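User: ok so my PI wants both of these folded by tonight, can you help

Assistant: No problem, let's get them done. Here's the first:
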Amino acid sequence: MSGLAVTPISTTEAVVHSLREKILDGAIEPGAPLPEVDLTREFGVARPTVRAAIQTLCHEGLLKRERNRSAFVPRLTSEEVLDLFSVRTPIECLIVRELLTRKAPLDGVHAALGPLMRLRVDSRWSEVVDADMGFHQALAHAVGSPRLERVHASLSGEIRLCIAQLRPSWASPAAMGDEHRDLLAVIESGDVEEAEARMAAHLDRALHDLTG
């Protein structure tokens, strides 16, 4: 009998996955405290497991912890979003330039576009966040520069929070698929300046929706 290989996940990973989805779906409001004792009851796990899950999400930037206070989802201010995009936009434009300069294959980017194109009106917003981030991470990976990919990955937690905050700005998650498909088409045209300009415009729209 042949079967599918299944990769088991630990209890901590399961708690991380569930909390991450709740954060990105907006089920946990920014600023709301997440006491460890409440989470142990909710998930039916030991407190060290909850503590480890919180630590993982703090490392990702999806939770924040301060002295004598329970972990909470940070609320990004307009100033913080502006600062994030002042770093993100040049990096993503550099990624586009390097992709075209190196004539890097875009097979992985086309594969990452699939989840975006499959989004529906009723898709959970955590699926939208994962699909959006997957596309941009695929662009970074396609360059073939581990260092550039690490720099981009270091911003991923706050970028995810930004996408989660964009939820009211989109009439339908499906529209995000069209936006990224058109962006990829411009990149594939091979015109570096046009591709960089399109990436900048793509991110400027997000920035405007977040701070406007």
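One down. Here's the second:
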Amino acid sequence: MIRAIRMTQSLLLLTLISLTAVTQAQSESAYQIEAILFAQPSGQISGERTPDSDWANGAVMLEETARSDVRKLDSTQYRLDREADKLTAQGYQILMHNAWIQPTDSRLKVAVHQGERLGDHFPVEAVVGLQRNQDSLALDVKAWRHIAVRSQTDQNSTLVSEQLHQIRRLRLDEVHYLDHQSMGMLVRVSRR
């Protein structure tokens, strides 16, 4: 009987050690990504092609995912509030300010959006991937800004869009600026 109790205790201890190691490994590979997409004060949308309706194809939708390793953070956990306030004070329009947790996985893309639907799209859409090489971290960002423009000849409206797409090597805990015509993006990645 004592031997069975000791074996059970040993198994429980090994299980606890294994779970601790897995949790630690997961937390070491988890990152907090925070992104602010903003409109340049004088920039006009150039009217590039609207993305396909499956803009988030293959990506995990942040608002809808059940994955435990990808989750949205509430605004109390934002770290770029001061930068957002400075942008607003200088006349920039904040289109999206979002933060989430995700692991580094070259196959994982996270899709975020902001605003009320405009047909098949949202006013702001972005797909973000995070990749870790041996000595560096890279961010792959595609972001779209859409505006519905009403035709003067009839009541129909068309979607005018602009896309920002950049792949950027980055350093942890630094604010990185991505620039594109009528919009820009600030991104900060930190270990969670």
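The radius of gyration is 21 Å. The helical segments are 2-28, 81-89. Good luck tonight!
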